[in-house]
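Can you give me the bound-state structure? Components:
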Amino acid sequence: MNEEESLEKLKNAILRGDSNKAIQFVNESIKTGIEVKEILNRAILKGAEEAGNLYERDEYFLPDLLMTGDAINAATETLKNSLNGKSEIQSKGTILIGTVEGDIHDIGKSLVVSLLQGQGFDVVDLGSDVPPEEFLRKAKEINPILIGLSGLMTMSISKMVETVNLLKSENIQSRIIIGGGILSKESCEMVGADDFAKDGWEGVKKINKLLRI
Amino acid sequence: MNKLVKDWTASVNRIFRTISGSKRVDKVPFLAFAGEQMICRVTGKTVKELYSSPKVYANAIITTFEFLNTDSINVPSAYAGPSEALAFAEANNKLDAIKWFDYKPLMCKQGEICKSEEDIETLEIPDHSKNNLWKNSLLAAKKINEKIKFPQVISLSIWSVVQELRGIEAYKDMRRNPDLLLKLCEKIYESQMDIYENWLEIVGMPPNVFIAGYSFNRHMMSFQDSMRYEGQFIKRMMNKIQVPFMLHNCGTSPYFTEVVKEIDFIAVNGSHPLDIEYWIDFKKKYPKITIIGANIDVSREMLTGTPSDVEEKVKENIINLAPGGRYICCPVCSLPWGVSIPNILAIPKAIEKYGHYPIKLD
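Here's the bound-state model for the whole set.
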């Protein structure tokens, strides 16, 4: 199998969301001597991009994106392990994310985490029902390039306001995005965030735009 | 019981005549989803106080809906979302999955109750007659029926319960193990039928079923999948419960126009789309389906606007959707904790100003 075929197979495994095949084809690509950068860019990230395009054309849906996300993570992990600590894969930066206090919905947030990891970000997921003080504590500790606050409930908006106020009063400089189906431009302005997203995929796109990546 | 301040008979007529398409409607009805958070806010009681006694709960609900001057009234916890998760948590000894709050509804940690495939295989279906929250909620619904003669509408769902029990894994199951996911949907269907049987026994025959749908959204799944994992079960409910069904759908990209071709709903209500043109077009295409909505946004004009902003939005909705009837004015989703009371009260005031039939607005 030549380099092109190897990478095509890996990309298709990513697109199908087949984690086992993705791991197998990463290992095969490494054995055939393909450079890590090539595997990442021409197969893994290419697969992620094509999955996103299919989603935008209503040919892929949330289940497909999630399966693709899992396959990307499995492939990237395999690639990292093969490097034995050598840092050929550079992180795009660290993102801090969590569902605000009083809300424990996490489906949209989990999708965002999975896709961002697949795109090369380090993501610290604080989980759900996260108090403002916990966002602050972790932000001070890891200095993220962006903080994502998620919430499905209409009641979560006031907690987003509280969290953003606390982060800004403590001079946290990270960009802030809020996510949830109930959000609007007006509520985003009220919260004081840099942007908002109504679903997971929109969140990923807007995060990339905010960070100009 | 508290003394009534409102003519509920007029409200009952307004709501149910609108839904049935009758011409004998005096003005556009006002419906609002006032959850426990609003009832706590109006009455000062905690949710546990509300849930502890059907009499206290029913009184608090009547007080709240009268205060908000709505034409609708319902028991918010008798809804197949978090309360159903609680019933499953109790039946399966997984109460750790439930988180209680003082002044808002309980929540379920999504995916905790059916974390593994084995959890689905062994999942016990709850007996709602043994669950205190459900028992008291249904008794409160009965008391409301008796007190104000407002027939209570039952709310059922499949996918919102799937999300509570299985969380994000449910979406992956669609691709890696659809049969297992269907097994979970079957169990939830059986549980929903248990709610219905209890409702029949305690509250009586409901006039309508309100489906709290969550699957009919393009950004979540294909339409084919939404019919497979929720739609087919709604059809089965319809065969069993021979009353008209209404559909509520939370989500930003709904399949309303697709789903009404497959399932015979008499009314639809959605948190989206917010574009009034969508609803104008919907009304043209489906003149016999009542629109409950359509775009009074709880996170825009309701939360951050003024009473004048709300009035303008109500006026826009009435001009475009009320002529010909079959329109109920309603904010798009549950009223947020922080929404100003004058903004809520601006809706019935605007209806009074613009919403009397025949509508004479350009």
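A couple of observations. The longest strand of chain B covers residues 290-296. Chain B touches chain A through 43 residues (CB under 8 Å).
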